[in-house]
Amino acid sequence: MPRKWRNLIVVLADQLDAAHPALEAADPAKDGVVMIETIGEAGHVTSHKHRITLCLSAMRHFAEALQTAGWKVDYLELDDGYLTLGAGLTHAAQQRRPEAIWWVQPGEWRVQAHLHATASDLGIPVRQFEDSHFYVTNDEFAAWAKGRKQLTMEYFYRQQRARFDILMDDGAPIGGQWNFDQDNRKAFPKAGPGALPAIPSFPPDRITKAVIATVEHHFPDHPGGLDHFDWPVTREQALQALDAFIEERLTNYGRYQDAMWQGEPFLYHALIASSLNLKLLNPREAVDAAVQAWQRDPDRFPLAAVEGFVRQIVGWREFIRGVYWLKMPGYAELNHFDHQTPLPAWFWTGDTEMNCLRQTISDTLDNGYAHHIQRLMIIGNFATLAEIRPVEVCDWFLAVYVDAIEWVELPNTLGMALHGDGGIVGSKPYVASGAYINRMSNYCGGCRFKPSRRTGDDACPFNALYWNFLMKHRESLGRSPRMRMVMKNLDRWDAEELAAIETRAATVRDALKH
Ligand code: SF4
Q1: Distance CA 166, CA 160 (A)
Q2: 416 lines ligand 1 (CB under 6 A)
Q3: What is the whole-number distance in angstroms between the Cα of residue 17 and the centre of ligand 1?
Q4: What pTM does this model have?
Q5: Which segments of the chain have a pLDDT < 70?
Protein backbone atom coordinates (compact mmCIF):
# COMPACT_ATOMS: atom_id res chain seq x y z
CA MET A 1 0.00 0.00 0.00
CA PRO A 2 1.53 3.40 -1.00
CA ARG A 3 2.34 5.77 1.82
CA LYS A 4 -0.49 7.98 3.06
CA TRP A 5 -0.26 11.71 2.33
CA ARG A 6 -1.78 14.41 4.55
CA ASN A 7 -2.95 16.69 1.73
CA LEU A 8 -3.17 15.76 -1.93
CA ILE A 9 -2.38 18.82 -4.08
CA VAL A 10 -3.78 18.81 -7.61
CA VAL A 11 -1.59 20.82 -9.99
CA LEU A 12 -3.35 21.46 -13.30
CA ALA A 13 -1.77 22.01 -16.73
CA ASP A 14 -2.24 25.79 -16.57
CA GLN A 15 -0.95 26.15 -13.00
CA LEU A 16 2.77 25.62 -13.51
CA ASP A 17 3.48 28.47 -11.16
CA ALA A 18 6.80 28.88 -9.36
CA ALA A 19 4.74 30.55 -6.62
CA HIS A 20 1.85 28.05 -6.70
CA PRO A 21 -0.26 29.09 -3.67
CA ALA A 22 -1.17 25.55 -2.55
CA LEU A 23 2.44 24.39 -2.76
CA GLU A 24 3.57 27.45 -0.81
CA ALA A 25 1.12 26.53 1.95
CA ALA A 26 2.05 22.82 1.95
CA ASP A 27 4.78 20.78 3.60
CA PRO A 28 6.74 18.53 1.23
CA ALA A 29 7.43 16.16 4.12
CA LYS A 30 3.72 15.48 4.66
CA ASP A 31 1.86 16.53 1.51
CA GLY A 32 2.13 15.30 -2.07
CA VAL A 33 1.24 16.39 -5.58
CA VAL A 34 -0.80 14.73 -8.29
CA MET A 35 -0.60 15.82 -11.92
CA ILE A 36 -2.93 14.16 -14.39
CA GLU A 37 -2.78 13.93 -18.18
CA THR A 38 -6.10 12.76 -19.59
CA ILE A 39 -7.47 11.92 -23.00
CA GLY A 40 -10.66 13.78 -22.08
CA GLU A 41 -8.93 17.10 -21.30
CA ALA A 42 -6.46 16.92 -24.19
CA GLY A 43 -9.31 16.11 -26.57
CA HIS A 44 -12.08 18.20 -24.96
CA VAL A 45 -12.02 20.25 -28.15
CA THR A 46 -10.16 19.14 -31.29
CA SER A 47 -6.96 20.74 -30.05
CA HIS A 48 -4.05 21.70 -32.23
CA LYS A 49 -1.14 19.31 -31.73
CA HIS A 50 1.11 22.18 -30.61
CA ARG A 51 -1.40 23.08 -27.89
CA ILE A 52 -1.51 19.54 -26.51
CA THR A 53 2.26 19.13 -26.80
CA LEU A 54 2.91 22.43 -25.04
CA CYS A 55 0.60 21.60 -22.13
CA LEU A 56 1.91 18.08 -21.58
CA SER A 57 5.56 18.93 -22.05
CA ALA A 58 5.32 21.92 -19.71
CA MET A 59 3.53 19.74 -17.13
CA ARG A 60 6.21 17.04 -17.30
CA HIS A 61 9.01 19.59 -16.99
CA PHE A 62 7.25 21.16 -14.00
CA ALA A 63 6.77 17.75 -12.34
CA GLU A 64 10.46 17.00 -12.79
CA ALA A 65 11.38 20.35 -11.23
CA LEU A 66 9.07 19.65 -8.27
CA GLN A 67 10.67 16.26 -7.71
CA THR A 68 14.14 17.80 -7.87
CA ALA A 69 12.98 20.30 -5.23
CA GLY A 70 11.96 17.44 -2.95
CA TRP A 71 8.25 17.10 -3.67
CA LYS A 72 6.51 13.74 -3.92
CA VAL A 73 4.65 13.68 -7.24
CA ASP A 74 2.20 11.13 -8.58
CA TYR A 75 2.31 11.83 -12.31
CA LEU A 76 -0.32 10.08 -14.44
CA GLU A 77 0.60 10.08 -18.13
CA LEU A 78 -1.73 9.94 -21.12
CA ASP A 79 -0.67 6.34 -21.72
CA ASP A 80 -1.94 5.42 -18.22
CA GLY A 81 -5.37 5.75 -19.81
CA TYR A 82 -7.31 8.06 -17.47
CA LEU A 83 -10.19 9.49 -19.46
CA THR A 84 -11.01 12.34 -17.08
CA LEU A 85 -9.36 14.40 -14.35
CA GLY A 86 -11.89 12.90 -11.96
CA ALA A 87 -10.80 9.36 -12.79
CA GLY A 88 -7.14 10.23 -12.24
CA LEU A 89 -7.88 12.12 -9.03
CA THR A 90 -9.97 9.23 -7.70
CA HIS A 91 -7.12 6.82 -8.35
CA ALA A 92 -4.59 9.07 -6.62
CA ALA A 93 -6.90 9.71 -3.65
CA GLN A 94 -7.54 5.98 -3.18
CA GLN A 95 -3.78 5.35 -3.19
CA ARG A 96 -2.80 8.24 -0.93
CA ARG A 97 -5.87 8.42 1.37
CA PRO A 98 -5.43 12.17 2.08
CA GLU A 99 -7.21 14.13 4.78
CA ALA A 100 -7.94 16.87 2.25
CA ILE A 101 -7.53 17.67 -1.44
CA TRP A 102 -6.09 21.05 -2.32
CA TRP A 103 -6.10 22.92 -5.60
CA VAL A 104 -5.90 26.43 -6.96
CA GLN A 105 -9.00 27.70 -8.76
CA PRO A 106 -8.91 26.16 -12.26
CA GLY A 107 -8.97 28.30 -15.40
CA GLU A 108 -12.22 26.79 -16.58
CA TRP A 109 -15.63 26.70 -14.92
CA ARG A 110 -16.29 23.15 -16.20
CA VAL A 111 -13.08 21.82 -14.62
CA GLN A 112 -13.81 23.54 -11.31
CA ALA A 113 -17.28 21.91 -11.17
CA HIS A 114 -15.83 18.54 -12.18
CA LEU A 115 -13.14 18.58 -9.46
CA HIS A 116 -15.63 19.58 -6.78
CA ALA A 117 -18.01 16.80 -7.88
CA THR A 118 -15.17 14.26 -7.78
CA ALA A 119 -14.04 15.28 -4.29
CA SER A 120 -17.63 15.19 -3.10
CA ASP A 121 -18.06 11.64 -4.46
CA LEU A 122 -14.85 10.68 -2.67
CA GLY A 123 -16.10 12.29 0.54
CA ILE A 124 -12.84 14.19 1.01
CA PRO A 125 -12.81 17.86 2.08
CA VAL A 126 -11.46 20.41 -0.38
CA ARG A 127 -9.47 23.59 0.00
CA GLN A 128 -9.59 25.74 -3.11
CA PHE A 129 -6.94 28.47 -3.18
CA GLU A 130 -7.32 31.84 -4.87
CA ASP A 131 -5.08 32.07 -7.94
CA SER A 132 -2.44 34.57 -6.78
CA HIS A 133 -0.98 34.73 -10.30
CA PHE A 134 -3.46 37.49 -11.11
CA TYR A 135 -3.36 41.08 -9.90
CA VAL A 136 -7.09 41.16 -9.13
CA THR A 137 -9.13 38.54 -7.27
CA ASN A 138 -12.58 37.48 -8.47
CA ASP A 139 -14.15 39.11 -5.41
CA GLU A 140 -12.35 42.37 -6.08
CA PHE A 141 -13.55 42.34 -9.67
CA ALA A 142 -17.11 41.58 -8.61
CA ALA A 143 -16.97 44.50 -6.15
CA TRP A 144 -15.70 46.80 -8.93
CA ALA A 145 -18.42 45.61 -11.33
CA LYS A 146 -21.26 45.88 -8.84
CA GLY A 147 -23.82 48.51 -9.79
CA ARG A 148 -22.12 49.48 -13.07
CA LYS A 149 -24.36 49.63 -16.14
CA GLN A 150 -21.44 48.97 -18.47
CA LEU A 151 -18.19 47.19 -17.59
CA THR A 152 -15.73 49.49 -19.32
CA MET A 153 -12.22 48.07 -19.45
CA GLU A 154 -10.61 51.50 -19.62
CA TYR A 155 -11.98 52.53 -16.18
CA PHE A 156 -10.99 49.19 -14.67
CA TYR A 157 -7.51 49.57 -16.13
CA ARG A 158 -7.03 53.07 -14.73
CA GLN A 159 -8.03 51.90 -11.29
CA GLN A 160 -5.49 49.04 -11.39
CA ARG A 161 -2.72 51.31 -12.70
CA ALA A 162 -3.29 53.62 -9.74
CA ARG A 163 -3.76 50.79 -7.25
CA PHE A 164 -0.53 49.03 -8.21
CA ASP A 165 1.35 52.27 -8.93
CA ILE A 166 2.34 51.32 -12.47
CA LEU A 167 3.51 54.14 -14.75
CA MET A 168 2.16 56.66 -12.26
CA ASP A 169 3.59 59.91 -11.00
CA ASP A 170 2.09 61.36 -7.85
CA GLY A 171 -1.37 59.94 -8.59
CA ALA A 172 -1.39 60.91 -12.28
CA PRO A 173 -0.51 58.75 -15.29
CA ILE A 174 3.02 59.27 -16.53
CA GLY A 175 3.05 61.20 -19.78
CA GLY A 176 -0.17 63.01 -18.83
CA GLN A 177 -2.55 60.48 -20.35
CA TRP A 178 -3.70 56.93 -19.64
CA ASN A 179 -3.65 55.69 -23.18
CA PHE A 180 -1.37 56.36 -26.17
CA ASP A 181 -3.30 54.54 -28.86
CA GLN A 182 -3.14 57.43 -31.25
CA ASP A 183 0.63 56.75 -31.50
CA ASN A 184 0.06 53.05 -32.07
CA ARG A 185 -1.64 50.88 -34.67
CA LYS A 186 0.12 51.95 -37.81
CA ALA A 187 0.22 49.91 -41.02
CA PHE A 188 3.55 48.91 -42.55
CA PRO A 189 4.82 50.94 -45.49
CA LYS A 190 4.06 49.56 -48.97
CA ALA A 191 7.51 47.95 -49.13
CA GLY A 192 6.69 45.91 -46.04
CA PRO A 193 8.06 45.59 -42.52
CA GLY A 194 11.70 45.16 -43.62
CA ALA A 195 14.06 42.95 -41.61
CA LEU A 196 12.27 41.64 -38.54
CA PRO A 197 13.99 40.48 -35.35
CA ALA A 198 14.60 36.74 -35.07
CA ILE A 199 12.17 34.88 -32.84
CA PRO A 200 13.81 32.74 -30.13
CA SER A 201 13.45 29.03 -30.70
CA PHE A 202 13.13 26.30 -28.10
CA PRO A 203 13.62 23.02 -29.95
CA PRO A 204 12.24 19.82 -28.41
CA ASP A 205 14.36 18.19 -25.70
CA ARG A 206 14.08 14.61 -24.39
CA ILE A 207 10.78 15.28 -22.59
CA THR A 208 9.15 17.16 -25.45
CA LYS A 209 10.22 14.50 -27.96
CA ALA A 210 8.50 11.84 -25.86
CA VAL A 211 5.36 14.00 -25.65
CA ILE A 212 5.37 14.52 -29.42
CA ALA A 213 5.39 10.73 -29.95
CA THR A 214 2.50 10.38 -27.50
CA VAL A 215 0.47 13.15 -29.14
CA GLU A 216 1.02 11.71 -32.63
CA HIS A 217 -0.13 8.34 -31.28
CA HIS A 218 -3.28 9.51 -29.51
CA PHE A 219 -4.35 12.44 -31.68
CA PRO A 220 -3.17 11.69 -35.25
CA ASP A 221 -6.12 13.52 -36.85
CA HIS A 222 -5.93 16.70 -34.81
CA PRO A 223 -4.93 19.91 -36.62
CA GLY A 224 -1.34 21.05 -36.90
CA GLY A 225 1.93 19.24 -37.49
CA LEU A 226 4.76 18.42 -35.10
CA ASP A 227 7.63 18.45 -37.58
CA HIS A 228 8.48 21.72 -35.86
CA PHE A 229 7.66 22.79 -32.30
CA ASP A 230 9.47 25.54 -30.45
CA TRP A 231 7.23 27.07 -27.81
CA PRO A 232 8.76 27.65 -24.34
CA VAL A 233 7.97 24.70 -22.06
CA THR A 234 9.90 25.67 -18.92
CA ARG A 235 10.10 28.74 -16.72
CA GLU A 236 13.69 29.37 -17.86
CA GLN A 237 12.62 29.32 -21.50
CA ALA A 238 9.63 31.55 -20.74
CA LEU A 239 11.96 34.09 -19.12
CA GLN A 240 14.20 33.96 -22.20
CA ALA A 241 11.15 34.54 -24.43
CA LEU A 242 10.18 37.56 -22.31
CA ASP A 243 13.70 38.92 -22.45
CA ALA A 244 13.84 38.52 -26.24
CA PHE A 245 10.55 40.38 -26.61
CA ILE A 246 11.69 43.28 -24.43
CA GLU A 247 15.07 43.59 -26.13
CA GLU A 248 14.05 42.94 -29.75
CA ARG A 249 10.40 43.77 -30.29
CA LEU A 250 8.96 46.00 -27.56
CA THR A 251 10.20 49.15 -29.32
CA ASN A 252 7.84 48.54 -32.25
CA TYR A 253 5.17 46.58 -30.38
CA GLY A 254 2.65 49.40 -30.05
CA ARG A 255 3.30 51.07 -33.38
CA TYR A 256 2.61 47.92 -35.41
CA GLN A 257 0.27 45.97 -33.16
CA ASP A 258 -2.58 46.20 -35.67
CA ALA A 259 -0.48 45.66 -38.81
CA MET A 260 -0.53 42.40 -40.78
CA TRP A 261 1.84 41.11 -43.41
CA GLN A 262 1.63 37.94 -45.49
CA GLY A 263 4.22 35.32 -44.55
CA GLU A 264 5.13 37.12 -41.30
CA PRO A 265 3.11 35.46 -38.54
CA PHE A 266 4.93 36.99 -35.54
CA LEU A 267 6.03 40.55 -36.45
CA TYR A 268 6.59 42.54 -33.22
CA HIS A 269 4.13 40.63 -31.03
CA ALA A 270 5.14 39.50 -27.56
CA LEU A 271 4.64 35.72 -27.96
CA ILE A 272 4.48 35.27 -24.20
CA ALA A 273 0.74 34.61 -23.80
CA SER A 274 1.16 30.83 -23.70
CA SER A 275 3.83 31.17 -21.00
CA LEU A 276 1.69 33.60 -18.99
CA ASN A 277 -1.42 31.47 -19.30
CA LEU A 278 0.37 28.28 -18.19
CA LYS A 279 1.80 30.44 -15.35
CA LEU A 280 5.40 29.80 -16.36
CA LEU A 281 5.64 33.58 -16.28
CA ASN A 282 4.11 35.93 -13.76
CA PRO A 283 2.37 39.01 -15.20
CA ARG A 284 4.23 41.23 -12.71
CA GLU A 285 7.54 40.06 -14.22
CA ALA A 286 6.37 41.02 -17.69
CA VAL A 287 5.04 44.42 -16.61
CA ASP A 288 8.14 45.19 -14.53
CA ALA A 289 10.45 44.23 -17.40
CA ALA A 290 8.65 46.58 -19.81
CA VAL A 291 8.48 49.48 -17.34
CA GLN A 292 12.14 49.05 -16.38
CA ALA A 293 13.14 49.05 -20.06
CA TRP A 294 11.37 52.41 -20.48
CA GLN A 295 12.99 53.78 -17.29
CA ARG A 296 16.40 52.65 -18.57
CA ASP A 297 16.11 54.01 -22.09
CA PRO A 298 12.93 55.95 -22.93
CA ASP A 299 14.20 56.83 -26.42
CA ARG A 300 14.57 53.18 -27.34
CA PHE A 301 11.46 51.94 -25.53
CA PRO A 302 8.77 54.58 -26.13
CA LEU A 303 6.12 55.17 -23.50
CA ALA A 304 3.36 54.47 -26.09
CA ALA A 305 4.69 50.93 -26.63
CA VAL A 306 5.26 50.25 -22.93
CA GLU A 307 1.86 51.62 -21.90
CA GLY A 308 0.16 49.57 -24.65
CA PHE A 309 1.82 46.40 -23.37
CA VAL A 310 1.00 47.21 -19.72
CA ARG A 311 -2.63 47.83 -20.69
CA GLN A 312 -2.87 44.40 -22.31
CA ILE A 313 -1.70 42.71 -19.11
CA VAL A 314 -2.90 44.84 -16.20
CA GLY A 315 -6.03 46.03 -17.99
CA TRP A 316 -7.35 43.70 -20.63
CA ARG A 317 -6.13 40.33 -19.31
CA GLU A 318 -7.36 40.96 -15.77
CA PHE A 319 -10.64 42.47 -17.00
CA ILE A 320 -11.36 39.48 -19.23
CA ARG A 321 -10.76 37.05 -16.38
CA GLY A 322 -13.02 39.04 -14.10
CA VAL A 323 -15.82 38.98 -16.68
CA TYR A 324 -15.40 35.21 -17.16
CA TRP A 325 -15.86 34.33 -13.49
CA LEU A 326 -18.54 36.97 -12.98
CA LYS A 327 -20.70 35.71 -15.85
CA MET A 328 -20.10 31.97 -16.05
CA PRO A 329 -21.63 29.46 -16.63
CA GLY A 330 -24.42 31.21 -18.59
CA TYR A 331 -21.94 33.38 -20.52
CA ALA A 332 -20.81 30.51 -22.80
CA GLU A 333 -24.35 30.09 -24.15
CA LEU A 334 -24.90 33.71 -25.22
CA ASN A 335 -25.72 34.37 -28.86
CA HIS A 336 -26.79 38.02 -28.98
CA PHE A 337 -27.41 38.19 -32.74
CA ASP A 338 -28.84 34.65 -32.93
CA HIS A 339 -26.24 33.71 -35.54
CA GLN A 340 -26.79 30.15 -36.79
CA THR A 341 -24.47 29.55 -39.76
CA PRO A 342 -22.37 26.40 -39.12
CA LEU A 343 -18.60 26.84 -38.92
CA PRO A 344 -17.26 26.26 -42.47
CA ALA A 345 -15.10 23.13 -42.81
CA TRP A 346 -12.27 25.24 -44.26
CA PHE A 347 -11.63 26.74 -40.82
CA TRP A 348 -9.75 23.46 -40.22
CA THR A 349 -7.77 23.57 -43.50
CA GLY A 350 -7.48 27.19 -44.65
CA ASP A 351 -8.82 26.12 -48.02
CA THR A 352 -10.69 29.28 -49.01
CA GLU A 353 -10.25 31.78 -51.84
CA MET A 354 -10.28 34.69 -49.40
CA ASN A 355 -6.57 35.33 -49.05
CA CYS A 356 -6.68 37.10 -45.67
CA LEU A 357 -8.49 34.13 -44.14
CA ARG A 358 -6.35 31.59 -45.99
CA GLN A 359 -3.15 33.19 -44.68
CA THR A 360 -4.41 33.66 -41.13
CA ILE A 361 -5.74 30.12 -40.84
CA SER A 362 -2.56 28.72 -42.42
CA ASP A 363 -0.47 30.64 -39.87
CA THR A 364 -2.73 29.22 -37.17
CA LEU A 365 -2.41 25.65 -38.40
CA ASP A 366 1.36 25.97 -38.85
CA ASN A 367 2.14 27.41 -35.43
CA GLY A 368 -0.89 27.14 -33.17
CA TYR A 369 -0.69 30.91 -33.22
CA ALA A 370 -1.99 33.98 -35.02
CA HIS A 371 -1.48 37.46 -33.65
CA HIS A 372 -4.29 39.40 -32.04
CA ILE A 373 -5.34 41.51 -35.01
CA GLN A 374 -5.50 38.45 -37.27
CA ARG A 375 -7.70 36.76 -34.69
CA LEU A 376 -9.88 39.84 -34.11
CA MET A 377 -10.19 41.58 -37.46
CA ILE A 378 -9.78 38.69 -39.90
CA ILE A 379 -11.28 35.61 -38.26
CA GLY A 380 -13.56 37.15 -35.62
CA ASN A 381 -14.68 39.89 -38.01
CA PHE A 382 -15.54 37.37 -40.70
CA ALA A 383 -17.30 35.02 -38.26
CA THR A 384 -19.47 37.90 -37.01
CA LEU A 385 -20.32 39.20 -40.46
CA ALA A 386 -20.99 35.70 -41.84
CA GLU A 387 -23.28 35.00 -38.87
CA ILE A 388 -21.42 31.88 -37.73
CA ARG A 389 -22.73 30.20 -34.59
CA PRO A 390 -20.67 31.64 -31.67
CA VAL A 391 -20.32 28.39 -29.75
CA GLU A 392 -18.62 26.77 -32.76
CA VAL A 393 -16.29 29.74 -33.25
CA CYS A 394 -15.38 29.71 -29.55
CA ASP A 395 -14.63 25.99 -29.60
CA TRP A 396 -12.44 26.52 -32.66
CA PHE A 397 -10.48 29.34 -30.96
CA LEU A 398 -10.09 27.20 -27.84
CA ALA A 399 -8.79 24.31 -29.95
CA VAL A 400 -6.28 25.95 -32.26
CA TYR A 401 -4.30 28.47 -30.19
CA VAL A 402 -1.48 27.45 -27.88
CA ASP A 403 -2.37 30.20 -25.41
CA ALA A 404 -6.08 29.35 -25.18
CA ILE A 405 -7.42 28.58 -21.72
CA GLU A 406 -11.16 29.10 -21.42
CA TRP A 407 -11.07 32.04 -18.97
CA VAL A 408 -9.12 34.08 -21.52
CA GLU A 409 -10.38 32.58 -24.76
CA LEU A 410 -14.13 32.78 -24.17
CA PRO A 411 -14.63 36.48 -23.32
CA ASN A 412 -12.07 37.44 -25.98
CA THR A 413 -13.85 35.42 -28.67
CA LEU A 414 -17.50 35.59 -27.68
CA GLY A 415 -17.36 39.08 -26.21
CA MET A 416 -14.71 41.03 -28.06
CA ALA A 417 -14.43 39.29 -31.43
CA LEU A 418 -18.08 38.26 -31.97
CA HIS A 419 -20.04 40.72 -29.78
CA GLY A 420 -22.03 37.58 -28.98
CA ASP A 421 -22.46 38.73 -25.36
CA GLY A 422 -24.40 41.78 -26.53
CA GLY A 423 -21.90 44.29 -25.18
CA ILE A 424 -20.70 43.00 -21.80
CA VAL A 425 -17.06 43.09 -22.92
CA GLY A 426 -17.10 45.67 -25.72
CA SER A 427 -19.46 48.56 -26.38
CA LYS A 428 -19.68 47.85 -30.13
CA PRO A 429 -18.87 44.97 -32.52
CA TYR A 430 -15.38 44.87 -34.00
CA VAL A 431 -16.48 44.66 -37.62
CA ALA A 432 -14.87 46.12 -40.71
CA SER A 433 -15.03 45.90 -44.47
CA GLY A 434 -12.30 44.82 -46.89
CA ALA A 435 -11.06 48.43 -46.99
CA TYR A 436 -9.75 48.10 -43.42
CA ILE A 437 -7.99 44.81 -44.17
CA ASN A 438 -6.52 46.34 -47.33
CA ARG A 439 -5.24 49.32 -45.34
CA MET A 440 -3.69 47.25 -42.55
CA SER A 441 -2.15 44.39 -44.59
CA ASN A 442 -0.92 43.28 -47.99
CA TYR A 443 -3.35 40.34 -48.16
CA CYS A 444 -5.63 41.89 -50.77
CA GLY A 445 -2.85 42.11 -53.36
CA GLY A 446 -2.76 38.32 -53.47
CA CYS A 447 -6.51 37.78 -53.47
CA ARG A 448 -8.87 36.97 -56.33
CA PHE A 449 -11.42 39.38 -54.80
CA LYS A 450 -11.32 43.16 -55.04
CA PRO A 451 -11.51 45.10 -51.76
CA SER A 452 -12.87 48.14 -53.64
CA ARG A 453 -16.03 46.32 -54.83
CA ARG A 454 -19.20 45.74 -52.82
CA THR A 455 -21.20 43.65 -55.26
CA GLY A 456 -20.48 41.26 -58.11
CA ASP A 457 -18.66 37.93 -58.21
CA ASP A 458 -15.23 39.46 -57.74
CA ALA A 459 -16.27 41.76 -54.87
CA CYS A 460 -14.55 41.21 -51.54
CA PRO A 461 -16.98 39.07 -49.51
CA PHE A 462 -16.28 41.13 -46.38
CA ASN A 463 -17.82 44.19 -48.05
CA ALA A 464 -21.36 42.98 -48.72
CA LEU A 465 -21.36 41.08 -45.44
CA TYR A 466 -20.26 44.21 -43.59
CA TRP A 467 -22.81 46.58 -45.08
CA ASN A 468 -25.54 43.99 -44.82
CA PHE A 469 -24.69 43.52 -41.14
CA LEU A 470 -24.98 47.27 -40.57
CA MET A 471 -28.30 47.33 -42.47
CA LYS A 472 -29.70 44.51 -40.34
CA HIS A 473 -28.66 46.13 -37.07
CA ARG A 474 -29.09 49.72 -38.17
CA GLU A 475 -31.24 50.76 -35.27
CA SER A 476 -29.27 49.20 -32.40
CA LEU A 477 -25.79 49.95 -33.79
CA GLY A 478 -26.81 53.45 -34.81
CA ARG A 479 -27.30 54.28 -31.14
CA SER A 480 -23.55 53.89 -30.57
CA PRO A 481 -21.79 57.24 -31.03
CA ARG A 482 -18.82 55.30 -32.42
CA MET A 483 -20.96 53.85 -35.22
CA ARG A 484 -23.01 56.88 -36.24
CA MET A 485 -20.55 58.22 -38.83
CA VAL A 486 -20.19 54.95 -40.66
CA MET A 487 -23.97 54.39 -40.62
CA LYS A 488 -24.41 57.58 -42.65
CA ASN A 489 -23.08 55.70 -45.68
CA LEU A 490 -26.25 53.64 -45.75
CA ASP A 491 -28.31 56.82 -46.20
CA ARG A 492 -26.35 57.71 -49.32
CA TRP A 493 -27.18 54.53 -51.22
CA ASP A 494 -30.43 53.95 -53.14
CA ALA A 495 -32.75 50.98 -52.71
CA GLU A 496 -31.21 49.19 -55.70
CA GLU A 497 -27.70 49.34 -54.23
CA LEU A 498 -28.92 48.19 -50.81
CA ALA A 499 -30.81 45.26 -52.42
CA ALA A 500 -27.70 44.28 -54.40
CA ILE A 501 -25.66 44.27 -51.18
CA GLU A 502 -28.26 42.10 -49.50
CA THR A 503 -28.26 39.61 -52.40
CA ARG A 504 -24.46 39.42 -52.51
CA ALA A 505 -24.27 38.88 -48.72
CA ALA A 506 -26.85 36.08 -48.90
CA THR A 507 -24.86 34.44 -51.73
CA VAL A 508 -21.65 34.58 -49.67
CA ARG A 509 -23.36 33.12 -46.60
CA ASP A 510 -25.07 30.37 -48.63
CA ALA A 511 -21.75 29.34 -50.13
CA LEU A 512 -20.41 28.76 -46.60
CA LYS A 513 -23.02 26.08 -45.98
CA HIS A 514 -21.82 23.85 -48.85
FE1 SF4 B 1 -9.66 39.45 -47.65
FE2 SF4 B 1 -11.34 40.80 -49.22
FE3 SF4 B 1 -8.79 41.48 -49.13
FE4 SF4 B 1 -9.52 39.21 -50.29
S5 SF4 B 1 -10.06 41.27 -50.95
S6 SF4 B 1 -7.80 39.50 -48.89
S7 SF4 B 1 -11.22 38.58 -49.00
S8 SF4 B 1 -10.22 41.60 -47.46
Answers
A1: 8
A2: no
A3: 42
A4: 0.96
A5: 1-2
